[in-house]
Amino acid sequence: MKECENVILDYHEKAKEIVETLSLTEKVFLMSGQITKEEIRGAIQKKIKTHYNEMPYRAGGIEEKGIPPMLFADGSRGVVCGRGKATCFPVAVMRGATFDTGLEKQIGEAIGEEVLEAGANLFGGVCVNLPYHPGWGRAQESYGEDPYLLGKMGAALVQGVQSKGVIACVKHFAFNSMENARRKVNITCDKRTEREVFLPQFKMCVDAGAGAFMSAYNSYQGVKCGHHDYLLNQVLKKEWGFPGFVFSDFTWGLTDTVEAVNGGLDMEMPNTCYYGEKLTQAVRDGLVPESRIDEAALRIICTLLAFRDKRETCRRKKADYEQHRALAYRCAVEGMTLLKNERNVLPLRCNKKDKKIVVMGQLADCENIGDRGSSQVYAPYVITLLQGIIQAANGAEIIYYDGESAAHCKRLSKEADAVIIVAGNDYYDEGEHIEADPDAVKIKNYGGDRAQLGLKKRDTEMIEAVASVREDAIVAIVGGGMIIPGQWREHVAAIMLLYYPGMEGGSAFADVLFGKKNPGGKLPFVIPQSENDMPQVDWDATEQSYEYYHGYTWLLENDREPIYPFGYGLSYTKFDISDITIRTTEEQIVVTATVKNIGAREGSEVVQLYVGAAHSKVKRAKLLLKDFTKVFLGKGETCEIHLTCRVEDMAYYDEQQGMFVVENTGYDIYVGTACVLKDLQKFSVLVDKNGSQCESGQISGFLFD
Amino acid sequence: MPFSVYETVNNDKLFPIHVFVASIESSVFHWHKEYEMIGMLKGSMHVRVQSETILLKEGDVFLVNSNEVHALKSVDGEVALCMFIQMEPSLFKTGDHDILFYLDSTGEEQVKCGFDRFYYRMSKIVYESMNEDKHAPFRVRAQASCMIAELFDYVVYDVRFGEGRKQNEQEMVVRFMEYAQMHLAEEHVLDMACHEFGMSRKTLDRSIKTSIGLSAKEIIDDLRMERAKTLLKTTNKNMNYILDACGFGSEKTFYRLFRQETGLTPKAFRENGSMVSYDSGLKGYLDFETPMVKGMLKGIIDAYQEKNHCLEG
């Protein structure tokens, strides 16, 4: 885990030698990007021919001193640079739904290779912000609502990307969970919320060796995150021992030279506005100590050298795009989340010549792969859901209709063998908030946060029209955030969540639909009954406080039943979990269980471990995800799985002592396949006062009835 | 009589549409690859399509899809004057799929822009096509392009993919009719057809009925009647020859069916009945007097523009 971190530190001496030869101007030169503000703004507003980040964005680099430049490539669903080449993977939230860290690491490796092909050396697409409210417009770029899931997936991506000698940049540090107000909002929360809910996933990425961090636009406790001494200097660099460098979120991530640089921001990106000459002057004026500039330069040089050498030592093979696309396909299959499947209506068996299948909804017939902000990937092609179905239909007649007229929906539904409705969102509804160019005539704003979490009226009417004439409708929901299915869910036979499934999404969807593949996704967020069942957020706020509970912990705390719980997802086969035993070592609890595929075909299951501390002296989530593992089993196959939870991961953050504390109390260990209290198998263990030294005899696991 | 089931349509090669006004007495079931827009200028007319019979009256618009089997028939005693615009599928698409529009001003399905927009647009196209100045073709093409865009914008349509669609019931109807035309003189053409297609009478009837709403027998009667009328009007053949040539089997059947259809005996029909000439190549579509039609179209165009305060659109 610490491998990359150590690598960076190994270059400390060498970097120090270089820093000593640099003039102040040269050091400052390393600390900012070289793109013009006009270039970046024009690209974001799509006013110029080249798209955002079409070429890597460069910062620093002094050849004669042996310092490579930093060359930034954005993400997260693939590499933004270039056109018609990069692989567009499913969005991060769908990758979260795979609960498969091994797969995420492979995607990281593929992305790493493509970053190099694009001529860059840093990947800016590791987003681990926690969607405090599911309406967050960029929830699609992150792995779901749970800090542990976010941290594990983020860490896997970091490791995959960096294994190719590409620096992984983790973003947006921190509390960036609102989009529309991101540049003006000030977030407040108490220390426990900060440490237990919003920061752990960032720390897990640091522990995985991440070489760079990007600060957030928003403020925290009244200070802009790009200027944040507490977050950047104290927590990230000092407490967590992060050895890499921190750069600003683009252009608007800092507003003051001295505050930013003293706050711990090592680099301004992607243009030079507050750094450069202003920074040199500030040092000369004594407002910034030169030692601070040395530290920033050292961090930048250390990291760039470490990864340059890593690139040279790891045998670089040419990116195999075909293989990457196969990975994108596999990920889409593994992430598709089947929520309802009454009477086993899925998989469909009507891909035969004499059958008629109706595909409804305009989102079936468009390249819907996520937002069109800074994470847009310019893939060579996108298989739409409709195209996927046509390809896999074996000659069955496919009738596509956009679904606008209820009467026509009914007419078509009556004559068909199956009706598949595609509903949900696209880049207009959510994503990075891009304001319309004020000079342009009536071009819609797009992206941003979602004020409503249900389906649009257009979609609901289409579903209800079909449901009024047949009971076996299949609804596929597309979207990067949590969507609450309305009452219509009672009247359809199947519901499947597709997120934004990437360039191969259409093929994957069709193969799942017709049963060639078994869907493997689990909800990376809870789906509550209503928009009232969650913390409330004002999307236009200048002040917003984040409370301790959100998502499934909020529902558990408030005794509300979700529609679909966190971690939930059906399969075409069935699994049995038996022989659960709990064993303790000095540092951790180890759960062992036997998983058996008792259904009729191959499939995957995600076994989840949750921990609660009902008798804690502080308020705690009733239960929290602490580990998970995904298993793939053939029909009738059995395997043994191990889940672990370190004692220190059961700690809470003690505000008085300013540290994590392990309580001497009983802990409830839950094992199961979704976060549903009544379905989880519960065990109890005791941890002694010194936590880490607990004797195994004192940690007793026994089954509650 | 040379009988081709496919209508011949004279296309503008540059922009493959065919525009004409005709008064309709009747046409047998037929189909063509062109989309056909029908606008009723005067009188009323039945359109038989997709197992339905639709009554179009003055002001109505209707679209017959590409390769859709249909038949037209005027209401007794009325002159039905219609605008026809036939458009090649290549104007609508490039790929190997079918686009089906659902435009029928007598149906429940409304269109967002109002049916009168299509009625107006058709009138403009026909009106421009009647102009002889050398720039008129540009205006016709422009108007037709607008109309195609408006079909996509405002009319319910769906798109069909897959080899499966080519084996649907309509295909069966086409094959059946082709066969029937060839063997109409045989009294037992139906049994022969069943044998030919390897299906029972029941199956044949069902597959034809779901497509055009008629039984195989009714189609045969229809085709025989058309042939008999043609022979009566265009030849001097005697009754026995005609009833044999048309496969009626007996004189009794011939007379009964003929009276049912026309209200006349074959003899009276030969003397007094009206019959469409097929010579134009467009079965049943008659030319109409130009100045009168132009006057009607101008009235429609002016009324629409005044109502919608537009000069051009």
What does this structure look like?
The complex is a heterodimer of chains A (705) and B (313). Chain A is of the alpha/beta class and 705 residues long. Chain A has three domains: 3-314, Glycoside hydrolase, family 3, N-terminal domain (TIM Barrel, Alpha-Beta Barrel); 323-564, 3-Layer(aba) Sandwich (Rossmann fold); 575-703, Immunoglobulins (Immunoglobulin-like), CATH 2.60.40. Chain A contains 19 helices and 30 strands. Chain A has a six-stranded mixed sheet. Chain A has a six-stranded mixed sheet with strand order 10-17-16-13-11-12, with helices on both faces. In chain A, helix 5 (92-98) packs across helix 14 and helix 16 (406-415) runs parallel beside helix 17 (457-467). Chain A is globular, with a radius of gyration of 25 Å. The model of chain A is unreliable at 1-5 and 691-705 (pLDDT under 50). Chain B folds into two domains: 17-161 and 279-307, Sandwich (Jelly Rolls); 168-272, Arc Repressor Mutant, subunit A. Chain B contains ten helices and ten strands. Chain B has helices spanning 115-130, 136-154, 169-182, 189-197, 201-212, 216-234, 239-245, 251-262, 266-272, 290-307; strands at residues 17-24, 35-42, 45-49, 52-56, 61-64, 70-74, 80-87, 98-101, 157-161, 285-286. Chain B has a five-stranded antiparallel sheet with strand order 5-2-7-1-10, with helices on one face. Chain B has a three-stranded antiparallel sheet with strand order 4-3-6, with no helix packed on it. In chain B, strand 3 (45-49) and strand 4 (52-56) form a beta hairpin. The radius of gyration of chain B is 21 Å and the shape is globular. Chains A and B meet through strand 12 and helix 16 of A and strand 9 of B.
Radius of gyration of chain B: 21 Å
Query: Judging from the principal axes of the Cα atoms, what is the shape of chain A?
Result: globular
Number of strands of chain A: 30
Q: pLDDT under 50 segments of chain B (min length 5)? A: 1-11, 276-285
Q: How big is the Rg of chain A?
A: 25 Å
Helix proportion of chain B: 40-55%
Strand content of chain A: 15-25%
Low-confidence stretches of chain A: 1-5, 691-705
